[in-house]
Write a structure and sequence with these properties.
The protein is of the alpha+beta class. Helix content is 32%, strand content 22%. The chain has a 6-stranded antiparallel β-sheet with strand order 8-9-13-12-11-10, covered by helices on one side. Strands 3-4-5-6-7 form a 5-stranded mixed β-sheet, with helices on both faces. The radius of gyration is 19 Å and the shape is globular. The mean pLDDT is 91.
């Protein structure tokens, strides 16, 4: 929701090059809040990054819009995030956000944290080495700041639009040369009409921006394998590349009907639905148990 709204605003503003990194594919249930996509994208089960690239290119031909179908991991974060003037957060979990925070510190690139749940959202612009970082904000309290999740409370599309607008405004300020002296956490509840701004000071003993202990970037933290709002588990297989055409023929013999496109295959093993990407990454819908997901992966795709 945040990523699609922010990407569209950036391109319409004339930002010259925008890269969208996303691990998921479009479903009908996404359309309520993910404004880049339409029913045709969902019918084709297009990866969100592919659909986003097509939509962004259609919006403004002078802008380079690039979609990368991938899960952001310690192995690829520096490569995917390098070469850009600013990074915007559209993630659905804090493990990925802490990875972005670590990568931004390593790259010395500003980034903007943003999160939305129900009718409420927050955003904060981070300038590594100059302002508080995400670890300064969250880690001392031991919590993520949002008690509800998209699983329990959903996301109001207007809340995502407001937070994305604030996020992009902060990005445009930095892209035009304005650098803040301190971080501000902006919060908004579009249902109650309440807006707040809170100054956030750097933690003088922050493990990330002070001590440069970048444990998420170094792969010392667990990756996030569940998908918010999806009742799904992601299985990582980064070391293999699949021949989707050959796999599809095999699955037709073992799992029945297989649907897909050049980017992924989908099949059902009731009550589960399995989506396999060409890089070996797989999303198993219908469970939040990693053991169940890995068992299905080993049975139908191979260990």
């Amino acid at each position: 929701a945040l990523g699609s709204a922010a990407a569209g605003l950036l391109v319409r503003a004339g930002v010259g090059r925008v890269r969208v990194v996303d691990r998921d594919f479009v479903e009908m249930s996404n359309l309520q809040r993910q404004t880049l996509f339409d029913e045709a994208d969902a019918r084709e089960s297009l990866p969100k990054a592919v659909a986003a690239e097509r939509k962004l290119r259609a919006m403004k031909s002078s802008v380079t819009g690039e979609g990368v179908v991938a899960d952001l991991t310690p192995a690829n974060a520096l490569e995917l995030l390098s070469g850009f003037s600013i990074i915007l957060d559209g993630a659905d979990n804090f493990e990925t956000r802490f990875l972005v925070n670590d990568a931004a510190i390593r790259l010395a690139v500003p980034w903007i944290y943003a999160a939305v749940v129900a009718s409420y959202g927050v955003t904060m612009a981070i300038e590594p080495g100059h302002t508080a970082c995400l670890a300064c904000l969250v880690e001392p309290s031991g919590g993520a700041g949002l008690e509800e999740t998209c699983d329990t409370a959903g996301i109001l599309n207007s809340a995502a639009a407001v937070i994305a607008a604030l996020e992009v405004a902060a990005a445009l300020r930095r892209l035009t040369g304005s650098r803040p002296s301190h971080a501000q956490l902006l919060s908004a509840d579009v249902w109650t009409g309440r807006f707040q701004s809170l100054a956030v000071e750097r933690n003088p003993d922050c493990r990330a921006c002070v001590r440069h202990e970048l444990r998420y970037l170094e792969g010392k933290a667990q990756p996030h394998i569940t998908m918010c709002g999806r009742d799904s588990v992601q299985v990582h297989e980064r070391s293999r590349r699949l021949d989707l055409e050959a796999l599809g023929r095999k699955l037709e013999l073992t799992a029945g009907e297989v649907r897909g496109n050049e980017f992924l295959l989908r099949f059902r093993v009731p009550p589960y639905e399995v989506t396999v990407f060409a890089d070996g990454r797989t999303i198993v819908k219908g469970t939040k148990d990693p053991a169940v997901a890995r068992s299905l992966y080993a049975r139908y795709i191979g260990s």
